[in-house]
Design brief:
Number of strands: 32
Shape: globular
CATH superfamily of the largest domain: Peptidase S8/S53 domain
Number of domains: 4
Strand content: 25-35%
Radius of gyration: 28 Å
Number of helices: 17
Distance between the termini: 42 Å
CATH architecture of the largest domain: 3-Layer(aba) Sandwich
Helix content: 10-25%
Structural class: alpha/beta
CATH class of the largest domain: Alpha Beta
CATH topology of the largest domain: Rossmann fold
Length: 737
């Protein structure tokens, strides 16, 4: 796509020049950039070469249209062209792309600006009193994102401590830090302190609450101002993850401390491979107790997508966050020795060099017992080091790059069809091509005795389809409580630039010596702190709101997403894409507390004895205190059924006015075939802030194995606020176990 975009702009540039010469004046033309890839080797007169190209399109006088030639590091030029001239240039040999000379501004990692959450957005004066608890791999305290200049002492409510050591100290930004290792085992790579040796915790913390840092980038990629969603908030660090993962015992210990320490929000980008029963899950357990103490837990939905029912964060009292794209993609062009270009995806910081090209299937490590049918996938140990050393290896799969790296390869071209919507970072120059383009590379490789290729440093382009939920993001439906929709919403989690630990390479492979204070990575781990920070943002304006109220604000103001780009619809994105500005003023909220969740749990089969242990009070599962799942005051509506006949479900809900004191909301519903939604009453009138009104939603649905999902929405609208809830009915597939 990158080369197509570039080529089209290039053609537009040449056409502009051509028509300008024949049909128009210079004033009618626009500046276009013609990109032609790597700089030719040896002596090269750029201006003469570029002028001759323009002459083919424009005829005589072409030199008047040439504004600038690129020739030191790469090949290309800028010229004044009409769109038609640019289109002609686009089709010329050696042209990668043609595009208008647009205007760019220094900006954030793109995620916040993409969501309409600018640096100048309205802030509460109490933001610096908000404490975000980060349960992760620790933090790199020297990062500029955590500079405490202009910060006063920690808020008086803070009761935590800092496990300072010879290599770690806190400040007025990182006000507390602890580490947990119940079994006492540490690896050589681990720091026996809250210091981050992995990078993950530093990345999530700076995304949530990092300060503003200008000119941040990963070796020039993603250049802009890095910032967290609440840059004035404080950070409390709870290191729970190590070289071998994140032990359940340590997760619970961290929750225990964080709640007592006085954090306002808990952000945990951690989860299991599968969803567990609520009280077999340390995150669900910890989040329940956090909820009881007025703290909302934000949790990543999981990276097991796009499998059905793969979401692992399912407890109704926590916020489950899916990962979506932003309007920036990274492309890595491959130029072959025959002059052909192909656009792959990756995050490649290496400058391109022309190198010999070899197919992994032609270089098996026979002494290790490997054959070509194995080495074509470039797995670790499968490649012959003598044959691949110093060369670019073509591999028939999306792999980590560790195999070619350990074999001494100087680059890697992968071809496959999975994960085309996210760019990964590798320990060596790499580009990931689709199967069609990868086959073209293979054809070229077999057509010459000395095949060569160049893997060019990545460029970023605008993603017109954003936001869309990325392939790896875990999907619903909820495998534990099928009539509660999960995930709750989506947030940016793809190609996110944020702070990084200097104790590890950017790819986290030991063979990689690239160290950077910032890194670009992807995952629902990156989406979670985006939601955590907006939770903190809303909390700064509404400090007395319950966790459920804040969660409702985020969900009911989320932006609907394009089903064309998200075929799994609500199972992928829940209520929609996080909208930070609207979340601070939702109009109405669906509130809930401990008693509401106890009723739900009683209805789900939990007994009084167990619940009393969990809640620490006299909760009981009497008939009066047992509720159907459809009566939990949740901001979304889900109906599951394994019947192919019409099914009816009745939902009892109430909403609390937090908008205009005197206001009237009217219900508007959107349905699809097989789904009916009725609301009674359809008008809610409020006389004061804090007033609560009840209503009933009746959903009728007919779904089947072939038409297995139907969705719609309910919106309460007062002319200012649109309080939107998704309504989903689906066929519940029986387990194959």
């Amino acid at each position: 796509m990158a080369s197509q975009i570039a080529l089209s702009w290039l053609v537009l540039l040449s056409l502009t020049l051509l028509i300008g010469c024949t049909n128009g004046s210079l004033d009618e033309r626009k500046d276009y950039i013609v990109y032609m890839g790597d700089r030719p080797k040896g002596d090269f007169s750029a201006s003469s070469f570029h002028t001759s190209m323009l002459q083919q399109v424009l005829g005589s006088g072409a030199e008047e249209h040439l504004l600038h030639s690129y020739h030191r590091s790469f090949n290309g030029f800028v010229a004044k062209l009409t769109p038609e001239e640019a289109q002609s240039l686009k089709g010329m040999e050696g042209v990668v792309s043609v595009f208008p000379n647009g205007r760019k501004q220094l900006h954030t990692t793109r995620s916040w600006d993409f969501m309409g959450f600018s640096e100048s957005v309205k802030r509460a004066t109490t933001e610096s009193d908000i404490i975000v608890g980060m349960l992760d791999t620790g933090i790199w305290p020297e990062s500029e994102s955590f500079n405490d200049e202009k910060f006063g002492p920690p808020p008086a409510k803070w009761k935590g401590t800092c496990q300072s050591s010879s290599n770690f100290t806190c400040n007025n930004k990182i006000i507390g830090a602890k580490y947990y290792r119940a079994d006492g085992s540490f690896s050589q790579e681990d720091f026996k302190s809250p210091r981050d040796s992995e990078g993950h915790g530093t990345h999530t913390a700076s995304t949530a609450a990092g300060g503003l840092v200008s000119k941040a980038s990963l070796f020039g990629l993603g250049l802009g101002t890095a910032r967290g969603g609440v840059p004035s908030a404080r950070i409390a660090v709870y290191k729970i993850c190590w070289f071998d993962g994140c032990p359940d015992a340590d997760i619970l210990a961290a929750f225990d401390d964080a709640i007592a320490d006085g954090v306002d929000i808990i952000s945990i980008s951690v989860g299991g491979e599968f969803a567990d029963d609520y009280f077999d899950d340390p995150i669900a357990i910890g989040a329940f107790h956090a909820m009881k103490n007025g703290i909302l837990t934000s949790n990543s939905a999981g990276n097991s997508g796009p499998d059905y029912a793969s979401v692992s964060s399912v407890a109704p009292w926590l916020l489950s966050v899916a990962a979506s794209t932003i309007d920036r993609k990274f492309y890595t062009l491959v130029k072959l020795g025959n002059g052909q270009f192909y656009d792959g995806i990756s995050i490649n910081t290496f400058e391109g060099k022309t190198l010999p090209l070899i197919y992994g299937g032609d270089a098996p490590n026979k002494t290790g017992g490997w054959v070509g049918s194995d080495s074509r996938y470039c797995e670790e140990g499968s490649l012959n080091e003598t044959l691949v050393r110093g060369k670019i290896v073509l591999c028939d799969a999306l792999v980590t790059g560790e195999g070619p790296t350990l074999a001494g390869a100087a680059g890697c071209i992968m071809r496959d069809e999975g994960f085309r919507d996210v760019s990964f970072l590798y320990p060596l120059p790499t580009s990931y091509l689709n199967l069609r383009d990868g086959s073209s590379v293979a054809t070229y490789l077999n057509s010459t005795s000395e095949p060569t290729a160049v893997i060019i440093k990545s460029i970023d382009v605008k993603d017109e389809m954003a936001p869309s939920v990325v392939t790896f993001s875990s999907r619903g439906p909820n495998p534990v409580t099928t009539d509660i929709l999960k995930p709750d919403l989506s947030a940016p989690g793809v190609d996110i630039l944020a702070s990084w630990s200097l104790a590890t390479s950017v790819s986290e492979y030991p063979e990689d010596n690239r160290i950077s204070p910032y890194n670009i990575i992807s995952g629902t781990s990156m989406a979670c702190p985006h939601a955590s920070s907006i939770t903190a943002y809303v909390k700064s304006f509404h400090p007395t709101w319950s966790p459920a109220a804040i969660k409702s604000a985020l969900m009911t103001t989320a932006s609907p997403m394009n089903v064309e780009y998200n075929s799994d619809a609500e199972f992928a994105y829940g209520s929609g894409h996080l909208n930070p500005v609207k979340a601070a003023d939702p109009g109405l909220i669906y509130d809930a507390g401990v008693l509401d969740y106890v009723k739900l749990l009683c209805g789900q089969g939990y007994n009084t004895t167990l619940l009393r242990i969990v809640t620490g009070d006299n909760s009981s599962c009497s008939a009066a205190n047992t509720g159907a799942v459809w009566d939990l005051n949740y901001p979304s509506f889900a109906v599951s059924t394994n019947s192919t006949h019409y099914i009816t479900r009745v939902f009892h809900r109430n909403v609390t006015n937090v908008g205009s004191p005197v206001s009237t909301y009217k219900a508007a519903v959107v349905t699809q075939p097989g789904l009916g939604i009725q609301v009674q009453p359809s008008v809610l009138s409020f006389k004061y802030v804090g007033e609560t009104k009840s209503f009933v939603v009746t959903v009728t649905a007919e779904v089947s194995k072939s038409l297995n999902r139907s969705s719609g929405s309910l919106v309460w609208d007062d002319g200012v606020h649109q309080v939107r809830s998704p309504v989903v009915a689906y066929y519940l597939f029986e387990s194959e176990d």
